Amino acid sequence: MSGLSQDLRQPGLLHHGGRLRTAAARYAIPLGEWLDLSTGINPNGWPVPVLSPACWSRLPEDEDGLIEAARSYYATESILAVAGSQAAIQALPALRTKSRVGILFPTYVEHGRAWGNHGHDVVSMAENDVDRHIGSLDVLVLAHPNNPSGFRFDRERLLSWHDRLQERGGWLLVDEAFMDPTPNHSLAPLCPLSGLVVLRSVGKFFGLAGARVGFVIAEQRLLTRLRNLLGPWSVSGPSREVARLSLSDTQWQQETRVSLATQSERLFALLRYAGLTPTGGTALFQWTETKEAPVIHEQLARQGILTRLFEEPASLRFGLPADEYARQRLAHALGNANGAVA
Question: Is this prediction's pTM over 0.90?
């Protein structure tokens, strides 16, 4: 992994997209000159208006309309707001006794870490290995669509796994962080269903990652236990107001789904032209497997473009460029990077 800084290679550290300040210091490029494609967050997110003064000065209240907006948007009644889906990812393992937990690989690394930190037996498996292992699992954790591969399962297959797990009081935990562009594939409307837990967030599609608002969709008994564990006021007043307003803006949502699909297709074509035909992706990112991923990541970073590097399998995830200037900048940088690799 030539050229990568030592702190980015330390074992035990989990790395995510968006570590722009670290990259700026590593490559001595000012923060404002970077093109950050590392996160999979909508670069043209929901336009946040001026918020009401009360949301800053009062303690958050459940009766502020957020849950009603979320119930309408996710088409389900049984839902809990949390401080980003990450809060739920870290807390849910505490609600089970020691379990055998299957987690798809590659996927969002925090899932495996959270279950392992709580003493559960974590089994990593490929997408085509689930049927072979499902009979020995208590919990199956998967991202849908998967991050970073973009792989999506048939609903019937997911529900068959849920049924197998539920026979033993198990869970199917589905992280739908990238589901918003294709809501018809969501399992959220099936809840509350015993043993089915769905995670959602306003971070990716709405481009509101900084607000730290997520939702857990599950049977009420589990939500009550989770709420008691997390405590009161887990989501700030301003974040609740932003989430409520964005979830209610149906016109923006419809227009953005069309726009993201177009942008993702253009990114696919750009990468294919550069000799990096994507292996998978969603409306919010494209993912390319290549043994040259570390070198290309390094070459792009030296030009002020941050991508998400995966070590195993060697691959790169590219988020959407925000505009034509950003697309042209990426195309030019990829040409330079490919020249360096050759």
Answer: yes
